[in-house]
Amino acid sequence: MKHVALALMLGASPVLADGCPEAPDHSEALAALFDELALARTDMEARVISNRFWEFWADAPDEPSQAMLDEGMRARAAFDFLRAIERFDKLVAYCPFYAEGYNQRAFVNFLREDYEAALPDLDRTLEINPEHVGALSGKALTLLALGREEEGQAALRAALALNPWLSERFLLKEEPGQKL
């Protein structure tokens, strides 16, 4: 705690015990994006706004963590899932309080169809950032893939409460006595 207080007194970002600084606080910018989404009139307009969330979620705490995130995402895009997992493993070990490291590792496991491995990372992402729409919709898809329909529908409803324009909205099923 003394190190955090000293860092704050010196005007530096507080550094966590493992050497990774706190993730940047983008809460105001994210809130503004949610406000914009609420005013969106078309699917395309909402998609443009939704894509802007990733600018903030993918803003890692420092240069080393950004490099790990970027390398992992490039490996994932190239379908080099082993390399991607290795980079995201390093990232979450270095920055255990940075949500996107867990979310990206979960995405790789989802793509590998290792849904059981994806769930704990999605849960950790949502512990850190409860409004991470990507993780919420990813959790819904993961639970549905596992055949856990009721839980998947609940996660999907939570994601749609934040962003009603998600493409996954078409997977939502009516609850008894409710019209979609």
UniProtKB/TrEMBL annotation:
Keywords: Repeat, Signal, TPR repeat. The keyword Signal applies. TPR repeats lie at residues 99-132. PROSITE patterns: TPR. The keyword Membrane does not apply. It comes from the Bacteria. It holds the Pfam family TPR_19. Residues 1-17 form the signal peptide. PANTHER family: TETRATRICOPEPTIDE REPEAT PROTEIN 6, UDP-N-ACETYLGLUCOSAMINE--PEPTIDE N-ACETYLGLUCOSAMINYLTRANSFERASE SPINDLY-RELATED. This is Tetratricopeptide repeat protein.
